[in-house]
From TrEMBL:
Residues 166-194 are annotated as: Disordered. The lineage of its organism: Eukaryota, Fungi, Dikarya, Ascomycota, Pezizomycotina. It is found in: Chromosome, Centromere; Nucleus. This is Centromere protein Cenp-K. GO terms for cellular component: chromosome, centromeric region; nucleus. It comes from Pseudovirgaria hyperparasitica. GO terms for biological process: kinetochore assembly; mitotic sister chromatid segregation.
Length: 352
């Protein structure tokens, strides 16, 4: 029984070789006939072959004494009978002529066309997948390149920092304690001078902004005009004429000096005092009031008077509203009559 599988295997191999040779000899296509005629002949041949194979299958089923099983039987006798029947079937197949399309059939061309179409579809799908992977890889490469540049820049900065620290350490090791203390004190003095100079420059720019732009807009808002920032060009003549109840410039002549002075006293007199207000126009009065409010807020923030960061507001002035809109100051969350400068190093909604 051990020789049966080897015999079956050799016959299967021989059958495959004969089939391959026969297939190669029938691959030529007769192009003397048109395509429709060849297709009709091919369909007729396939139908006839299908009918023959159905007849052979029915004949085979009638000859088989055992039911068709897909797995070997556990009974040794039945298993032997199954093997003998399989052997007989393979022997018959090995002796039969391979069933191949006749010469001139369109089946080889159709099979080749289907194979080419399947190959084209799979290739196109593969191209889409590869393009998506390529795009993702390029994006990853871009990210990795940026991270590599950052790492190199960080490495260079750390190396430079380390070199400076080594140099400073070497320089300090060669100096006495007195020399080191003197240089440290000198460096702090230089930094203090630099800070004072920058503070002075900022103070000048702050005052220039108030005098050149902000004061006139605040004065216009106090006189009933538009909110500061909506009307950029406000001159002294506009302030002298005043604004209507709708916030528009009045038409006509400006009021008298006495009327303007009385109006300044009514609006800004409580901040400026009667004597100083007599020497100021609307723009100067608004600038002085804004500086006074900002000074009080700044001193309260620094806790100069030890009374907390909030200051009481006698009235809701245009200067106070401007500071709140600019997010420079904020009202107390529980008392709108007090306000403070915002400490940008803390949360904006801090309640203390």
């Amino acid at each position: 029984m051990a020789s049966i599988p080897n015999e079956i295997e050799s016959k299967i191999r021989q059958y495959a070789a004969d089939t391959h040779v026969a297939e190669q000899s029938h691959m030529e296509i007769d192009v003397s006939q048109d395509l429709e005629t060849r297709l009709d002949q091919t369909i007729s041949g396939l139908q006839a072959q299908l009918a023959r194979q159905k007849a052979d299958l029915e004949l085979l089923r009638a000859k088989v004494s055992l039911p068709v099983a897909t797995t070997p039987s556990q009974d040794p006798r039945k298993k032997l009978q199954q093997l003998e029947e399989l052997t007989a079937a393979y022997n018959k197949l090995a002796d039969d002529e391979p069933s191949l399309p006749p010469k001139g059939s369109s089946i080889p061309a159709l099979l080749a066309t289907r194979l080419v179409q399947d190959t084209v579809r799979s290739t196109a799908s593969g191209i889409d997948i590869v393009e998506a992977q390529l795009l993702e890889t390029k994006q990853d490469l871009k990210t990795w390149t940026a991270e590599l540049d950052d790492a190199r820049a960080l490495k260079t900065a750390l190396q430079e920092r380390l070199a400076r620290l080594k140099q400073q350490h070497e320089e300090r090791s060669d100096k006495t304690l007195t020399q080191t203390a003197r240089e440290t004190l000198q460096g702090k003095r230089q930094k203090t001078q630099d800070y004072e100079r920058e503070t002075e420059l900022l103070h000048r720019a702050f005052n220039d902004f108030i005098d050149s732009h902000l004061a006139a807009m605040l004065a216009a808002e106090e006189l009933g005009g538009p909110v500061a920032g909506e009307m950029m060009d406000v001159d002294d003549q506009d302030l002298a004429v005043g604004f209507s109840s709708q916030g528009k410039l009045r038409k006509g002549k400006s009021i008298s000096d006495q009327g303007r002075q009385r109006r300044i006293d009514d609006i800004w007199g409580d901040v400026l005092g009667h004597e100083s207000s007599e020497r100021l126009n609307e723009k100067d009065a608004a600038a002085a009031a804004f500086r006074d409010l900002f000074r009080k807020l700044y001193e309260a923030l620094l806790d100069v008077n030890s009374s907390g960061p909030y200051i009481p507001m006698e009235r809701e002035s245009a200067a106070a509203r401007f500071l709140v809109r600019a997010k420079i100051a904020q009202y107390h969350p529980k008392d709108a009559g007090r306000m403070r400068l915002i400490d940008f190093g803390k949360e904006l909604d801090e309640n203390v």
